[in-house]
Structures are given as C-alpha cells and as structure tokens.
Fold these 2 entries.
Entry 1:
Amino acid sequence: MQKNACCWSLFRFKIQKISVYNHFDPKNRDISNGKLSSGEHLGIFYPDFSNLYVGQTLKTNRFSMSQSLKTEDFRFDGTRTFHHKKTATKIEDLYDDKADYAAQLADFRTTIDELQSLMYAHNRYGLLVIFQAMDAAGKDSTIKHVLSGVNPVGVKIQSFKRPSDNELDHDFLWRHLLSLPERGNITIFNRSHYEEVLVVKVHPEILTKSQRLPKELTKDLDKVWKQRYQDIANFEKYLYHNGIRVIKFFLNISQQEQGKQLIERIEDPTKNWKFEEDDIKERAY
C-alpha cells in the first residue's frame, strides 16, 4: 500500500524543485469507514476511499530510491508561517541516474492511471489538483511528464491565462467554477483562483480598470484581500462538502534559476512561444 503513497509526490521529481502545498481542512478531523480524511494534505485514492498517507517516508516496492522523501518537510497547512524567500528551491536527487528516474516515473504513471480508473469507476469523488508557481518554474513540463501515461478520458488540464472580456464581466471565481472536475475525474489547474490574491494584489489597478469593481468596494484594499482570502477558503470548503478533494502544489524556483529559464526561452527558437515581455517585468516584483 505504501507504494501508492508516492504517486502524487512525483509531480515534483522532474524539475527537482520543492513543492509546497496544502489542502483546505475544515475541522482537521479523521474520517474513516469509506470516506476521505478532511485533515489530509497529500494522498492517493484507494478502492474503498478510506486511506490517505501523509507525512510518511516515500518509497516504492519496485524501485529503490537512492534517498527517500519526507513529505512533512514540504507540507504547509496554515499552522506555521511560509516564507517564500527563505524556503529551499532544490532538493537532492531522488533517483540514482537517468535510467532509474525513467523507470520510477513509468511505474508511477502506471499506478496513477490505475488509481484514476478506480476513482472513475467509483464515481463519487472528484479531484482538483492546483499548480501555482512563478513564470518558468516548470508547471507545464511537470504536468506533461507525470500525466502523459494517464487515460485522458478521466483527466482534464485547464490553463488559466489572462481573463477574457467575458470572464472579466463575471465575479473572479466564475471561470474556475466552470472548470471543476466531474465526479470520477481529475482536473489540473495550471494557475488558479490564487492569481486573484497574487497578481491582482501586486497590480491592484486590475480591480478597478479590468474587473471594474464598484469604487466603494475598493477604497480599502486590505479589506479586499482579506475578503478574497475568505472567499477562496469558503470556495474550497464548498468543494469539500460536495465531494471534490483539493490538492495544491507550489513549485518553488529561485530568481536566478528563473532568469536562466527565461533566457533559454529567448535563445531557443522552439521555446520562443513561451516567452512574453511581461515575464521580465514581473521579475521586479
């Protein structure tokens, strides 16, 4: 059973950057007998949907890792403060060589596919996986390498770019609600509703010029952010109450490494399409 516990952790293996994630926890209680635990933060679904493994040393019974990963070192659930700049951006290799890496990844893809098939057949829960990161941190490549072996029937990937005019005419959660997973399915959010308290907070003019909120609602910006934090917490609580489990990953990249990745996007013609001038401007923040 412990083999299955490491499947979702593989979202971190490809780019070797630390993921920081949490799951909304309404009461931090343990629920057994056919239900998922609301207090768990990293886990894999089993046929009876009663077990989740958290904070354990991750190993496989098919391939031996040169080192093991303790998930509690990277899990943030709100009980302690997270300092982005003080958090490490690289971990030691969890594989012996490229061949070992490829073998482990293939094994984990198979396991994820099998577990997703069970969840699809069970048809009671949905799974929302959120990826947040700075530009060039590796969200696209991580999703691609880990999910390439999973049956696409039960998986949907939703990337959130700049909102369209139609999306801006609605509340900030509207477009995310439209992309939630169906029961039995996995949906990956490449960026998410957290942009509304990240990018928008850095550029508050978005509230008045793009989202066009009423002036009386934007006089006190500190109040706006507190309200949005609460709105997001309530949103995820709502999802939990309706059988949708949320797992969040933050891919942490140093500014130095980000700079290298952006330069590569400029110099490599096959990656030019990934580069935007605003990526450089945003580094100032």
Entry 2:
Amino acid sequence: MLHETTFNATLARAINNIVIISANNMADDESNQRRKVKFLQILLLMDSFEEEDVLRSRERVIWTRSWIRRREERGAYHQLIRELAVEDAPAFTRYFRMDKEKFNDLVGRISIHVHRQDTIMREAISPGERLAVTLRYLFDLLVV
C-alpha cells in the first residue's frame, strides 16, 4: 500500500512533468515522449492505488448482532422452553396454554408454511421458535 506522503510526492512529480511538458512546448522528441509515457504510467499507478484504498477502507457490515448469534445457547426458546418441556410439563402448559404434544403437533402443521432457509450470513429462526414467539405475543395481547 502506498503511503499518503509517497502518494503526494508522486502526484507532485507528475504535475511537475505536466508543467515541464506544456511549458517547453517542444517538438515531440524522444525525451519528451518518454516523459509523457512516464506520466501516463504514474497516473495509472495512482489510480490503481486509489481503488485499492477504497476497497480496503470499506467497513464490514454486521448482518447478525453477536447477542442474536448466541440465541442457541442463551435464548428463551432454547433454554426456558426446552427445560419446561422436559422438566415441568404443567408450567409449559401454563406458558403456552397447551401441552407439549399439542405444541409439537402445531409446529408440525405450520412448519412447511413458516420454514425459512439458512443462509451464509445467518441461521434461520426455526418454526418452533417462530410459533413460541407468536403464541406468547398473542397471549400477552389477550391478558392486557
């Protein structure tokens, strides 16, 4: 990568060459031709360095926040709901207003309609997790 001071010095030499070429206004002899070729090479080189700097300076876009990526280890669905289903069936029934067999049956029925494909950028939210969030949202609306 070309440093800014080197870049400025190269640009100054290129501008100086332009001034010399235009001030002399000589016939196109061999040394003048070499200066023009050198000048064009410098311009092309500077242009390529500018493009590299632009590409390198572009910041990465975060598609998924780090706390969202940890939802499999710390999220409510992956922790609380699964623990309730295994350890405390009555609490699961109170939480979703249905037992875990009905919940799993409902997930099976709707999964073909709400299933999303995983991408390179992030994992899709599972149908069970989508259903759990939707049910809790709807039950909270009913209670209010």
